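haha ok so turns out i had the wrong file open the whole time. this is the CORRECT one, sorry everyone. sequence first:
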Amino acid sequence: MAVAFESAGAMDAVARMKGTRVLILGDMVADIYLDGRISRISREAPVLVLEEMGERVVAGGAANVAHNAATLGGRVKAFGVLGRDAGGDGIRAVLDKVGVDTAGLVGTAERPTISKTRVIAGGRATVSQQIVRIDKESRDPLPTLLAKELETALLKALSSVDAVVLSDYGSGTVTEEIRAELLAACRQKGMPTIVDSRYGVRSFRGVDYVKQNDAELAAAFDRRLETEEDIERTARELIGELDAKGALITRGEKGMLLFLSDGARYEIPVSDKSEVYDVSGAGDTCVAAFILALAGGTSPQEAAYVSNIASGIAVRKLGTATVSDGELHKKVRELSSC
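then structure:
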């Protein structure tokens, strides 16, 4: 039976998140924004000429999960691969600023930092908008020595964390060998794990919890999910395949559905129906809040409720955004008093 969730106990859940130690492994992405002012039309071709006004690097992908986990009050260790380039330097700077331990970010000259450069153009009297995006990443598998270095560092770090997130954007950081060794070690230690995988979620056997949006879940099984019954049936199939404890399925304006291996089902409606500005990175916020609450000793359903509130804050911000523990605490307090 579906259960409508209330906010009782959420304040305690948010308090428990503070200081929780979490390891984030995955594809570290540099979201680069290149801002320009429209100057004229080029004489060389019918294209805009922009005067460069500024450039900024925002943590994306697994780096955004780490960024959110830190701003939500966690003690975070980030693991992944960065190129020796401006994108890699930018990610390190962003994460260092919020206290993330970046010693696990392996630098290499063999491949570039995964980056998505967005050129933003506008004039003095016009709204700025994205006119092109340029992506850069290596399609080659991680070199064996680099993968082994990352795996060794990961297994060593498990003695000093409370939970693990695998953030897989399909760029090859979470190799089959790393995935198997890490999940086996976590399960042996009784350490909670969660995976958010854009394209390969069915390969993460041994993980405790899975986070997917409904479109990703449908794509993973190559089927249409037109009803909540379709979603539940597929989510439970995924739980069984992975020997997982639960699946958290996000559905945009329809909220979240949490399915547990014991047969329980929880419906979590959106916490605030005010205008949604940008959904970029909201899934990363969701994962960060869920694992912090879970590792702090909160039940999965309470962790899902809190992560839903955190995601609701994130979507009302422009761009890939983070949520602070203060913002989350304030919002939970507001909902508790309603």
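The first strand starts at residue 21 and ends at 26.
again sry for the mixup
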